[in-house]
TrEMBL record:
Record field: transmembrane: none
Name by which UniProt lists this protein: Methyltransferase
Pfam families: Methyltransf_23
Keyword annotations of the record: Transferase
Molecular function in Gene Ontology: transferase activity
Source organism of the structure: Robiginitalea biformata (strain ATCC BAA-864 / DSM 15991 / KCTC 12146 / HTCC2501)
Length: 296
């Protein structure tokens, strides 16, 4: 069943390229359309008027602190490793002692570790997650407009940008809060990856309608190029292929998902060594010109 009570298709939509489903919460169908100007950018349609109810699932792990299942515990271990990997990556591009803002802080795992090296703050609209982050003595805002302008050496969004409804306004607001030589660091699923092509409508990283935008490497460069930014570096997120493959096998109702997924994830990662199209990519972006200083 197609989602109801939804927005009309905007003029930027081209013909749909794929029909998929919300496998996590509602079971409703959604279509992916090409953007008419940004090559490689796909858009979810229709967009429900109330997106909050699509996050109401016990399977939505990103805002949970206490694992309740075996998979939940494994997820927490992988997340802890991933947080430290992210901090090491950011350290290659942002000097110690600088200001870092995280959008979509969740319960504050990244900021808590990052605070050992930088002055940190975050934005988290979810009240429960924000409360847990505040309990960790972190500085967390509810909304982006509460953050002072031009104050940050880096702004990071770990799998967050694809959730944001008003993409253009948000990017402008982010850049207004970034120093001239600051870095914008994004982690995004890559719909050109092997696992995306293999699973097609079952690919868990489409995650409709929570994911409103679906990026390729070309679309990221194209989109942010219109804002005067260039891509300084890209890094694959190898663990994502395994997690996404496991969820995708579950969505296919494969009873052997836990056995099959590691091989699918490995296949995707091995293929990415040649195609340079991993399941997820971290992009490090900076402004063009002398003030942007393109080096790490």
């Amino acid at each position: 069943m197609m989602a109801e009570n939804s927005t009309k298709p905007p003029s930027m939509l081209q013909d749909p390229v794929l029909t998929t489903r919300d496998y996590m919460v509602s079971g409703e169908e959604f279509q992916l359309h090409r953007h008419d100007k940004i090559h490689g950018l796909l858009m979810t349609h229709p967009v429900p008027e109330d997106l909050t109810r699509y996050y109401e699932s016990r399977d939505y792990l990103s805002h949970r602190d206490r694992p309740e299942t075996l998979f939940g515990r494994l997820y927490q271990l992988a997340r802890a490793w991933n947080v430290n990997w992210k901090v090491r990556l950011v350290a290659k591009f942002v000097p110690a002692g600088g200001e870092i803002l995280e959008i979509g802080t969740g319960q504050g795992d990244f900021l808590q570790v990052a605070s050992r090296h930088w002055s940190v703050s975050g934005v988290e609209p979810n009240r429960g997650a924000r409360h847990r982050a505040l309990q960790k003595k972190l500085k967390v805002f509810e909304k982006l407009h509460e953050v002072p302008a031009a104050a940050n050496d880096a702004i990071v969004l770990w799998h967050v940008l694809e959730h944001i409804p008003d993409l253009e306004a948000t990017i402008s607001n982010l850049l207004n809060r970034l120093k001239p030589d600051g870095r914008l660091i994004l982690a995004l699923p890559n719909h050109r990856s092997w696992d995306a092509r293999h699973y097609r409508e079952y690919w868990a990283a489409y995650d409709v309608p929570r994911h409103l935008w679906h990026f390729s490497k070309h679309s990221v460069k194209d989109l942010f190029g219109t804002y005067g930014l260039e891509c300084i570096a890209m890094r694959p997120m190898w663990l994502d292929a395994f997690y996404v493959s496991w969820l995708s096998e579950k969505y296919k109702a494969n009873r052997w998902a836990a056995l099959v997924a590691p091989w699918k994830g490995l296949t995707s990662n091995l293929g990415a060594l040649f195609t340079r199209e991993p399941s997820s990519v971290v992009y490090v972006l900076g402004r063009r010109g002398p003030s942007g200083n393109s080096g790490p």
